[in-house]
UniProtKB/TrEMBL annotation:
InterPro entries: Phage_phiJL001_Gp84, Phage_phiJL001_Gp84_C. It holds the Pfam family Phage_phiJL001_Gp84_N. This is DUF2163 domain-containing protein. Residues 182-265 form the Bacteriophage phiJL001 Gp84 C-terminal domain.
Length: 277
């Protein structure tokens, strides 16, 4: 390779199998079955790589465009954790190339029609905590393999038509199914139809209104607001307590916490006549 003929090429593969290729060269490059386009869909800063197991430190940035990485896809989380590879390639001889980075996309931030995301190296998973946490509250996620609760049951999930929205995060429903107030707090909301389809959020407050109405407040807006008439799915929330698991979900047999674990105050407090075991 010579310095005057070196270009960089990026491949991004989403979890659903969609692949995009970009290059800073002024013409299309094709290798390994990928077509690398010379547009501004994505670019990356200079990589900072280290020996050992430290995580490669870099960022990728680009424009949100209809034909490459769209705002809707970013909001829906379709690019979260996507695989990334970067090559240095001699554009006069595409066989003369070397892989300089392999990893995944981290957290994505949006601003003024553009995005910025962290590039995470292959050693990033080594930073994740391993082992079980001993805590009075449940360590499982509602409905996962440890919880084993069937969320498709209509007791824990319902669909309703949006009647109105305010401040981009407070949704109003009319004729809502009969659930007790607070049933969906800490739960999830998913938009099923309309311009905000596939966007979702976490429920902050769930208020039952007179006449069968419902007000659902999210922790933050969805980025693209759903419109009246859109179909919305709501899933019940869990506060991870043993009593909630028993009384609300009837699932105490699968509770993954330790409700009788003594608190730190109890362990540290002095007691007359003996010690804590």
């Amino acid at each position: 390779m010579t310095a005057t003929t070196i270009a960089r090429a990026w491949m991004v593969r989403r979890a659903d199998g969609m692949v995009l290729g970009f290059t800073d060269h002024d013409a299309v490059l094709s290798f390994e079955g990928i077509r690398f386009r010379p547009d501004h869909g994505m670019s990356a800063r200079a990589l900072v790589q280290a020996t050992g197991l430290s995580v490669d430190n870099s960022e990728a940035e680009g424009a949100l465009s209809d034909d490459a990485i769209t705002e809707m896809d970013v909001l829906a989380g379709r690019w979260d954790g996507a695989d990334v590879k970067m090559w240095e390639v001699d554009w006069t001889d595409l066989s003369a190339r070397r892989l300089v980075f392999a990893g995944s996309l981290g957290e994505i931030a949006r601003s003024q029609g553009a995005f910025r995301t962290e590039l995470r190296g292959l050693s990033e998973p080594l930073n994740a905590a391993r082992g079980r946490v001993f805590h009075p509250r449940c360590s499982a996620r509602l409905g996962d393999g440890s919880c084993k609760l069937a969320l498709a049951n209509e007791t824990f999930r319902t669909e309703a038509v949006l009647a109105g929205i305010e401040e981009e995060r407070i949704l109003h429903f009319a004729g809502f199914p009969a659930y007790e107030a607070g049933w969906f707090e800490r739960g999830s909301l998913l938009v099923l139809t309309g311009g905000a389809e596939a966007l979702g959020g976490t429920v902050k407050n769930d208020t039952a209104l007179p006449g069968g109405g419902r007000k659902i407040e999210l922790w933050q807006g969805l980025g693209i607001s759903p419109l009246p008439g859109d179909q919305i799915r709501l899933t019940a929330g869990c506060d991870k307590r043993a009593l909630t698991c028993r009384d609300k979900f009837r699932n105490l047999v699968n509770f993954r916490g330790f409700p009788h674990l003594p608190s730190e105050d109890w362990i540290m407090a002095p007691q007359a006549g003996g010690r804590h075991g």
